[in-house]
Design brief:
Layout lengths: L3 E5 L11 H10 L4 E8 L16 H14 L6 E7 L5 H10 L4 E5 L11 H7 L1 H18 L5 E2 L4 H4 L2 H5 L4 H14 L1 H13 L3 E5 L1 H4 L9 H9 L5 E4 L12 H11 L3 E6 L2 E6 H4 L2
Parallel strand pairs: 1-2, 2-3, 3-4, 4-5, 5-6, 6-7
Antiparallel strand pairs: 8-9
The chain binds zinc ion (ZN) (2 copies).
Length: about 280
């Protein structure tokens, strides 16, 4: 299988130290067809230091990657970004996507009411049930704001860090019950999210980091992928969300099996912001 990994972080992201070379070497070793770098750009991310966090200098990013093209002329990597979407950053985000020739833009909810569900304070403030529904409400608000993105990232990211998932390390049964309950409690909201995404001609990703983070499912969950498909969703990219080269393309075989079972016969790659549908047959050799 030689899929493209469309969600990858390098040292241009605050939470990664991976060099572009290490990622490309790993992609070549794993026989991935290509990689799209999608470093974090979260405008107005609350920083604990004097330095802004989760933002990079796009001039330096493009210059570094253009130079790298000369070093790897035969490896067709693409240049993307993972934009953190929230209230108050629309102008900066539109300026960025309007000024730089990205191949691909993932829009993601990382902050809800300026808190990251990755942090315990989020759950202490909201409680678990409200913390989950509030995340989806914020996602729907972001979608309706008019951001310029291609696919919405890890739709149910919030589940990865919910206390029941994080603390229940070995209790798979309890975790599954919790995940199913949370999906049915938020079903209408999630359907509305998918309807809006589809209506705007955008897509979603299957993000395999859920497998490496103890969720035991991709983001979004299999049930939500089926819901997206049923509502007419076709655009779907595959991404590992790797922050280290070793996780590149991780669990792609499982993701492929899930997509096939859900009824997808193709997946999507973005080149110069245009979706290219790739049939699975083309990639299975
Ligand atoms: Zn993300
Ligand atoms: Zn990411």
């Amino acid at each position: 299988m030689n899929f493209s990994d469309n969600h990858v972080h390098s040292y241009f992201s605050t939470d990664s130290e991976a060099s572009f070379e290490s990622i490309i070497e790993s992609a070549l070793e794993k026989n991935l067809s290509s990689v799209c770098f999608t470093d974090h750009m979260d405008y107005d991310f609350p920083s604990e230091t004097d330095e802004p966090e989760f933002v990079f200098d796009p001039d330096s990013y493009f210059a570094t990657l253009q130079k790298l093209r000369k070093k790897y002329p035969d490896f067709p990597f693409r240049i993307g970004v993972e934009l953190g979407l929230k209230q108050g950053v629309l102008k900066s985000a539109l300026e960025l996507t309007g000024s730089y020739p990205f191949d691909f833009v993932i829009g993601s909810t990382h902050l809800v009411d300026n808190m990251d569900p990755y942090e315990e304070i989020y759950w202490e403030t909201t409680g678990e049930t409200k913390g989950i529904s509030r995340y989806y409400e914020a996602t729907l608000e972001n979608i309706k704001q008019g951001f310029d993105y291609d696919v919405y990232g890890h739709i149910d990211y919030v589940l990865r860090y919910a206390p029941t998932i994080r603390q229940g390390k070995n209790e798979q049964h309890a975790k599954e019950a919790f995940i199913n309950r949370s999906m049915s409690e938020n079903e209408e909201l999630l359907r509305e999210i998918f309807r809006e995404i589809i209506k705007h001609g955008k897509g979603i990703e299957i993000n395999t980091a859920g497998f490496t983070k103890g969720l035991g499912h991709p983001n979004p969950h299999e049930t939500l992928l089926a819901c997206y498909k049923e509502l007419g969703g076709e655009i779907i990219t595959m991404g590992s969300d790797a922050h280290e080269a070793t996780y590149l393309g991780s669990h792609f075989e499982t993701a492929y099996a899930i997509l096939k079972k859900t009824g997808f016969s193709q997946y999507t790659e973005f080149h110069q912001r245009k979706p290219k549908m790739i049939s699975f047959k083309q990639r299975i050799k």
